[in-house]
Amino acid sequence: MNNAFFKLHLSVLLAGFTGVFGKLITLNEGLLVWYRLLLTSLMLFVFLRFSGRQQKTALRDAGAAGGTGLLLALHWVCFYGSIKASNVSVGVVCFSTVGFFTALFEPLFNRRRISAREMLFSLITIAGVGLIFHFDARYRLGIAVGVLGAALAALFTVCNKRVSAGRDTLTTLLYEMLGGAAGISLLLPVYLAFTGHSFGLPSGGDTVKLLLLALFCTFFLYVLQIQALRGVSAFTMNLTYNLEPVYSIIIAMFFLGEARDLNAAFYGGLGLIILSVALQTWTSLRSAAAARHEIRLRKAKEQVYARGLKT
Prior knowledge:
Blueprint: H1 2-24, H2 29-51, H3 59-85, H4 88-95, H5 98-110, H6 116-135, H7 140-163, H8 169-195, H9 204-228, H10 234-240, H11 244-256, H12 264-310
Helix pairs in contact: 1-4, 1-9, 1-11, 2-3, 2-8, 2-9, 3-4, 3-7, 3-8, 4-7, 4-11, 5-6, 5-7, 6-12
């Protein structure tokens, strides 16, 4: 159990570095994501090939995973675009709105009622982002792009639950990376022309950072998640990943000195987002405790009933 928790928190810490790499790598966000997808696809293919873990996948399932991977790739483009237009702290704060969009999209896809409680907590997050947006005009483009990226991340999360159900996680991830790479390859020339950039090879420094991003913050991160899930619940993992924006902001302050660029509006908005996360965590823990209590009561009743039948 302790080993699983260590791997879980290490994966969250690695996730916190993704935004910092996005700021440090000088490539346009479209090229950055394209190289990240290609390198991660290569690493996954080599690992699955030599470990013998790759499973046969029907063409339809591979296509569905590839389409889902394109959503992830577009989210990454927006996420890094937000960071480059503002900074890491603003980018990860905008990513926190993914909870709002998930609370909105998941009921629509699964044909169930929208949870008023989930929407209320998510709207607190939106209020936090709105506070930053209203009082700090410097970051408005970055915030707008970051919120769009959060909506794409929510769509990816909802779709990924469907395409990965009952299938090998790393094999599905490989097809998602390949689908994302193929989709970005088609869109990249138009995107580069629209943003006024040209295609180029990364510099030596950017190549090293891209390799680190793909190896540790993508491939190794997902492997750690899979291993951690063998010892902790998905519920625990989701709660722990609420720490990712906090880790990212601390890392950005330490490595990039972003504290001097942030004003009172940012910290006020961040406070609302932390409040939202705390409320979600508290209610989730209460719900889990209530569910466990209900299971214990049901088992106790079944045992009493079984003893009654024996007598």
